[in-house]
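Workshop exercise sheet. Pairs work together: one partner reads the sequence aloud, the other fills in the structure field after running the prediction. Swap roles for the next sheet.
Pair: D.N. / O.F.
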Amino acid sequence: MSLVAQYGTAYGYRLRRDIDDWPISGPLVPSESTIYKSLNDLFDEQLIEEVDPDEPPARTGRDRRRYAVTALGHLRVTEWMDTEPRSMEELWLRIGCARQQDIPALIRWVQRAENECLDRLESLGVPDLGPLVASGAPWRLVTRTMLDSIETSQVEERSQLLREIRHALAQSVQPPPTS
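Structure field:
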């Protein structure tokens, strides 16, 4: 629903195509059948409504069912964006679906996730990386500084954290889907 809100109007195939291009994977990425079922459910719940197409029928000659979000639907999207994400993947999902008015809430969640990550690094005894990051130091220098402080008893925990940070950084440099 939030993607339909972001686009103004959308149809199932466009949503599926754009979601396929997202830099996230896993259980939060809906399958094609889930997208169409969700559109039907949202329509039944009056969270989206069918609107007249603003473009000619597809090459198949069939009209696509186009949807727009209702006022109630916009309210639900806003409530979802304002609640705390349950995972980094859900945060990335929200970033991909964000409307302009959702940006302040997303910034708040990104800052909170960043602070949690820095707190976790601090609890592992990693030196303060803030000045390095703030100075625009290359990722390799930041990583090297972190790895140089590793104690063998914490190798696995730090390795997992490093994988999570690399994954988050890789996801953050990917541009959001465009239409």
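Discussion prompt: The longest helix spans residues 103-123. What would you look at next?
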